[in-house]
Specification:
There is one protein chain. By secondary structure, the protein is mainly alpha-helical. It has one domain: Alpha/Beta hydrolase fold, catalytic domain (Rossmann fold, 3-Layer(aba) Sandwich), CATH 3.40.50.1820. It has 6 helices and 3 strands, in the order E-H-H-H-H-E-E-H-H. Strands 1-2-3 form a 3-stranded parallel beta sheet, covered by helices on one side. It is globular, with a radius of gyration of 16 Å.
Length: 146
């Protein structure tokens, strides 16, 4: 049986707080232009945000219970103790751990020592540099496949 491995991509709760600007813009966006601007904070190059992505995100936000769920996530991310997890808690992870972060992340700046940084990517490197993220994940799994 192979050991379990873990991977985190730009995880919240480990150091820097989530950008209040991003959360506020995302939560309040109910039209195309404000949503495109909010989503643009997720990436290094705002041209990566397609009209389809904007439309799908707006449609998702209109779903039953979504507004309440997003508000709860934002309150947890911005409330007291939001960053209490701290970097030290990663040391409690016993499985081999890969942390991936974009160097241009404006939502949660890359604070994790030892994280694999992907240059020129924002908060969603799995979209902006899918091949590189997939290669890192595949190598991590292969390195720890017993």
């Amino acid at each position: 049986m192979s050991p379990i491995t873990d991977a985190l991509i730009a995880p919240a709760g480990f150091g820097q707080p989530v950008s209040a600007e991003f959360l506020e813009r995302f939560l309040s966006a109910d039209r195309r232009r404000p949503m495109k601007e909010a989503l643009g904070l997720l990436v290094a190059d705002a041209a990566a945000i397609s009209p389809e992505m904007v439309e799908r995100t707006l449609a998702m936000k209109r779903g039953d219970g979504v507004a309440e769920a997003l508000a709860a996530v934002a309150a947890a991310a911005l409330g007291p103790g939001a960053t209490d997890a701290g970097l030290g808690d990663l040391g409690r992870v016993t499985a081999p751990l890969l942390v991936i972060w974009g160097t241009e992340d404006r939502v949660i700046p890359a604070p994790v020592e030892g994280a694999r940084l992907i240059a020129g990517c924002g908060h969603i490197p799995q979209m902006e540099a899918a091949a590189e993220v997939n290669a890192l994940l595949a190598a991590h799994i292969a390195d720890h496949d017993g």
